[in-house]
Amino acid sequence: QNLPYSPCPGIGIGYEDLKTIEEHHILENLVNKTEPVVDFVFAAKINRVLDAVLESAKTNQWISVKSVQV
Fold first, then answer.
1. Does the reported pTM lie above 0.85?
2. Contact at 8 Å (CB) between 30 and 23?
3. Alpha helices of the chain — where are they, by DSSP H?
4. So what's the pLDDT on residue 19?
5. Distances in Å between the alpha carbon of 60 and those of 24, 43, 46, 54?
6. Is 65 in a helix, a strand, or coil?
7. Residue 1 has pLDDT above 60, yes or no
8. Contact 44, 68 (CB under 8 A)
9. Could you count the other beta carbons within 10 Å of the beta carbon of residue 27?
10. Closest CA relative to residue 22, chosen from 38, 44, 10, 1
């Protein structure tokens, strides 16, 4: 699938492109007074997954992902 910000299939986007897309989403939320899809709780959940991945790599065991309390 060709995304709106992808020039053509097989061409990746760079750091600057990602930052531009993020800024667009932030401004869009401000203008439309909507909540962003990504927030600190979402980021905390991702961090918990990454922690489990690192621990699993160290111990060579399955690690359960701890839930995030809000």
1. no
2. no
3. 15-32, 40-59
4. 86
5. 40, 25, 20, 10
6. coil
7. no
8. yes
9. 10
10. 38
